[in-house]
Design a protein that fits this description.
Largest sheet: 2 strands, antiparallel
Strand order of the largest sheet: 1-2
Number of strands: 2
Radius of gyration: 20 Å
Distance between the termini: 22 Å
Mean pLDDT: 87
Shape: elongated
Length: 167
């Protein structure tokens, strides 16, 4: 895959400052996590208005109500953790694919929790909690993975020119 401008008469890649750093990942995590949290909070309020009890059982405990602020905080914390972990992929080949599929796997694993609740937890709660997981995945994982992908070697023409001239 090459960028649209590589066939140009003057193929000039983006400046070095366009290569993502830790602060870019943290910024993206805060923005995407906040949006996921806000949308989840709005959906939570809507679901409460239509009668969903949002009582879930932590492992080994009885079902208890889920506080409203967790609807905002959980996606934000998940995004920050994902952003911090993807820092270790910066500058590696296939970083975007690795980040995307690792984030997708983590989201799929976390999706198991609402679905394996005890029998006394209503299915309406389980379904809505699953919706929140999907919202967080849709907003966080592809965006952070795209940013990580911008650091892949050979992503820009300048990298290719530098590799060719150094050998």
């Amino acid at each position: 895959m090459s960028a649209a401008w590589t066939g140009s008469v003057t193929p000039i890649g983006p400046p070095e400052s366009a290569v993502p750093r830790m602060r870019d990942l943290i910024y993206a995590a805060v923005v995407t996590g906040s949006w996921a949290g806000l949308i989840s909070l709005i959906l939570y309020v809507f679901a409460r208005l239509i009668g969903v009890p949002f009582a879930a059982a932590p492992p080994g405990q009885a079902a208890q109500p889920i506080p409203w602020f967790l609807m905002f905080l959980a996606p934000l914390v998940a995004a920050l953790v994902f952003g911090l972990l993807t820092y270790f992929l910066l500058g590696r080949r296939h970083a975007q694919r690795i980040a995307f599929w690792a984030g997708t796997a983590a989201a799929a694993i976390s999706l198991v929790s609402p679905l394996v609740q005890p029998a006394d937890v209503l299915w309406s709660t389980r379904i809505w909690l699953s919706v929140f997981h999907v919202v967080a995945w849709i907003l966080i994982v592809p965006q952070v993975a795209r940013i990580v992908g911008d650091s892949e070697p050979g992503r820009f023409v300048l990298d290719e020119q530098n590799e060719g001239s150094s050998g």
